[in-house]
What does this fold into?
Amino acid sequence: MHIKLEKITKIYQTPYKELKVLENLGLEIKDKDMLTIFGKSGAGKSTLLSIIGGMDTPTSGRVIVDGVDLSNLKPDELADFRKKRIGYIFQSFNLLGNLKAVDNITLPVILDTDKDKKINRIMELAQEIGIKDRLGHLPGELSLGEQQRVAILRGIINSPEIILADEPTAHLDNENSLKIIEIFKKLNKEQGANVVLVTDHEGVASRFEKRFNLGE
Ligand SMILES: Nc1ncnc2c1ncn2[C@@H]1O[C@H](COP(=O)(O)OP(=O)(O)OP(=O)(O)O)[C@@H](O)[C@H]1O
Ligand SMILES: [Mg+2]
It folds into this structure.
């Protein structure tokens, strides 16, 4: 997938004043590119990631995906784009609280004809990152780091063309952080998935060849 951001500005309206979070930002993500978006808390990393993923719209500027301006898509086309092509890993997980971890993970593929293959593969990864025996729990019965790993598996089960991961290792120990980064690298190498990983952690960012610094 090829993504081009042109002159992106994002202004939030707050009751007292306007808050300009992104200004005139340009960024190109080439097909099969892997990069990290690095910046301190409040720099606008989550805002930028949600704009790339078509979850939020810029105040001005354009997001062009494979030559198509996202603002020209109809709502159902945009929903389709998000569902079929993007694997979004939310900073605050967005797990469904009344579904077991396993059901949260498999929800995106439950209607797919090849779901068994996808589920088997994701279970191997669950084993590898040490949450296989927690998958019968509800999210509220899991530690933050376990919930984070569930959110990661849900984000990648559908072999998305692009993985947009918002601080996906923030709640993980060092060993699991490295495992997650290796899984992303493998998906990039073997399936050609783009990976955009947001972090404020130098040790995580340093694992990527390409880095986009946000803020001063
Ligand atoms: N819906 C909103 N309305 C108003 N202001 C917002 C909104 N969402 C974010 N902001 C503000 O925009 C700025 C950037 O927020 P954002 O969540 O993108 O930062 P971030 O770099 O992801 O931070 P963190 O590392 O803490 O997750 C912050 O100052 C935040 O207060
Ligand atoms: Mg954030």
Notes: The mean pLDDT is 97. Residues 3-213 form a domain with the Rossmann fold fold (CATH 3.40.50.300). Helices lie at 45-52, 75-85, 101-106, 115-128, 144-156, 174-191, 202-205.
